[in-house]
Specification:
CATH architecture of the largest domain: 3-Layer(aba) Sandwich
Structural class: alpha+beta
Strand order of the largest sheet: 19-18-20-21-25-24-23-22
CATH class of the largest domain: Alpha Beta
Radius of gyration: 43 Å
Oligomer: single chain
Number of domains: 5
CATH superfamily of the largest domain: Class I glutamine amidotransferase (GATase) domain
Number of helices: 9
Distance between the termini: 69 Å
Number of strands: 32
Strand content: 25-35%
């Protein structure tokens, strides 16, 4: 158990010692007068022969009592407390995992070294916990060494978008306990924090310029990229940028952006190049200074045609509107078939097909009644109110199939999904209707084709955001090869049953997903959260000041004899007054 003084200014009371000594140095030197009779004695004040002067220090009981009183008063004012080596304080630091924290790595380390050790300077043992603010964040450190915690912090790379830290703070409070210290470390000060959290903000306003958006447009003459460049600063900013593809790059081009201005850069993909990089002159926040772009390529879909003269033209127009769709070879099974069905002459249908109802005779009557859509994502937000269809015989409704569109009592569009069967059935004569002129018809066909595309195991190229969930269709058989994600950070093996949790990398760059030696995805990952790139609200702030005194009070023991010292101080003062009053009583005169 060691002694500490909670109120160091109390030592100023020691100045009372030289004050007491000075008073006792300054005394009056008196002389004795002899008189003949007492009744003739006039009142005569004692007077110094030589006046006030320093004399030797005369030891006396009042002197020692007064010095003792000064020492007791100093002891009381300094508020002595005792610490124990067995005292433990839990300190949990919740780090804001937002990407904007990347710009303040040095400020973060400096602030932690300045603010955290003084909190527990009077505690025997401190247990540190360092966790991220995201729900999936890892426990970066847990132990009793502050230096080891700072070493673990050096490997931390914040990458999340804007999110709430409430869940992480709740976990932090459970780790710290009711008496522990919970600190939320961020760069944007929060107005209020739950669970009794303290705030340590290390941010400051920055003049950031970066890429905030990407669009790739496929055209007959080639593929065009469009990149959005934004100035988040309240002042004009000048930067330079260049385009790089493989080992080649363009000359740097200057660009000046007004406060808050957004500008679009545009260009063509290089011939034979499937990827490129747009590089901006770096600033403190580097995550949005480079834009990685791949030329998108959806999975190839092979299709077969119906051959029916009534719908052949319509099918040809639909195929032309689809991306990366080509006719299947004669000897292969197509990924999707465009088929027709005559209710009067039923025939088996392909398992994966878009089916049009087809009759030789065109009916004269039209369907009547309100048009109602089902609650399904494949038909959501599609407007069918302008549909005009002729009344035809209906196909029999099967158990388990979903009706996507009704008109009155007639089921117009059916969706059959069971096992390997994927069929979109138009239960009316499309060729004799105005469906081909409705945007909803084309969009529905595209959505269904995309479902077929998503379920196929094949190669695709795409541009993603950081940490974006990836839907990877793979071989799920027990003897299939494992998957792996390859990026500049390294190679990560992914077991087949955890593919649903696969995400794009946390750092910008190109990456690939492979199953064995087969490449399933070539892609890019880019920063896209413009809220994290805006540093106008960043500011330094700390609410840790009062916590040190609170910890000292809760983890140390006050002087158990405080009341005894107060009584001793009072007794010392009374004794000193008693002896002084006796010394100042007039002495009896001696007769002549």
């Amino acid at each position: 158990m060691s002694l500490i003084f909670a109120h160091l200014p109390g030592f100023w009371a020691l100045l009372g010692i030289p004050a007491v000594l000075l008073i006792h140095f300054l005394q009056r030197e008196s002389r004795r007068l002899r008189i003949t009779t007492l009744f003739l004695l006039e009142h005569i004040d004692r007077e110094s022969v030589k006046g006030r002067r320093f004399d030797r220090l005369r030891q006396s009981i009042p002197l020692w009592l007064q010095l003792l009183a000064v020492l007791i008063l100093t002891w009381i004012l300094t508020e002595p407390r005792w610490t124990s080596a067995r005292s433990v304080e839990r300190v949990v630091l919740v780090l804001d995992h937002s990407a904007s924290m990347e710009a303040f790595a040095k400020e973060l380390a400096t602030a932690l070294r300045r603010e955290i050790p003084p909190l527990t300077a009077l505690v025997g043992t401190t247990e540190y916990s360092l966790i991220e603010s995201t729900l999936t964040g890892s426990n970066l450190y847990r132990g009793t060494s502050f230096e080891e915690m700072m070493t673990a912090l050096e490997a931390w790379s914040p990458s999340a978008g804007t999110h709430s830290a409430e869940s992480a703070l709740r976990i932090g409070r459970s780790l710290a306990g009711t008496d522990g210290t919970l600190v939320y470390v961020t760069d944007h000060p929060a107005r209020e924090l739950p669970y009794g959290s303290a705030l340590l903000s290390v941010g400051e306003p920055l003049g950031n310029v970066g890429f905030s958006g990407l669009r790739v447009i496929g055209q007959d003459g080639g593929t065009t990229w469009q990149a959005t460049l934004r100035n988040y600063a309240p002042t004009s900013q000048k930067r330079s940028w260049f385009l790089a593809s493989g080992e080649e790059r363009t000359e740097a081009r200057p660009v000046e952006l007004k406060p808050g201005e957004t500008r679009t850069l545009q260009g063509q993909f290089p011939a034979g190049g499937g990827s490129l990089r747009l590089v901006l002159e770096p600033d403190r926040f580097t995550r949005d200074d480079t834009l990685h772009v791949v030329q998108p390529s959806p999975k190839e879909i092979s299709v077969s045609r119906t051959g029916a003269a009534t719908v052949e033209r319509l099918v040809a127009e639909l195929i032309a509107s689809l991306d990366n769709v080509f006719p299947s070879a004669a000897e292969e099974t197509p990924d999707l078939a465009f088929a027709t069905y005559n209710p009067l002459q039923p025939e088996p249908l392909p398992k994966k097909a878009i089916v049009f109802l087809n009759q030789e005779a065109v009916p004269r009557q039209f369907f009547t009644g309100p048009v109602v859509s089902a609650n399904d994502s494949i038909i959501a937000d599609l407007d069918w109110q302008g549909l005009i269809a002729r009344a035809t015989p209906s196909v029999p409704l099967l158990e388990g199939e979903k009706v996507l569109l009704w008109q009155g009592e007639r089921a117009l569009i059916l969706l059959r999904e069971e096992g390997e069967t994927r069929q979109l059935f138009f239960n009316f004569d499309v060729a004799a209707s105005n469906a081909a002129r409705l945007p909803a018809f084309v969009l529905l066909v595209n959505r269904f084709v995309n479902r077929i595309r998503d379920s196929k195991i094949g190669y695709e190229a795409l541009n993603t955001e950081l940490r974006q969930p990836l839907a990877i269709t793979h071989d799920p058989s027990p003897d299939a090869a494992p998957l792996s994600l390859v990026s500049r950070q390294g190679r990560i093996a992914v077991s087949p049953h955890r593919v649903a949790y696969l995400r794009a990398p946390e750092a910008p760059g190109f990456f690939s997903v492979l199953q064995g030696e087969r490449t399933l995805v070539n892609a890019s990952a880019n920063f896209a959260d413009s809220r994290e790139a805006d540093f106008s609200g960043a500011a330094p702030l700390s609410t840790l000041g009062p916590i040190s005194a609170k910890i000292s009070e809760s983890r140390t023991v006050p002087d158990p004899f405080r009341h005894i010292w107060l009584i001793a101080l009072s007794a010392t003062a009374l004794l000193s007054w008693h002896y002084l009053s006796r010394a100042t009583q007039p002495a009896r005169s001696e007769p002549a």
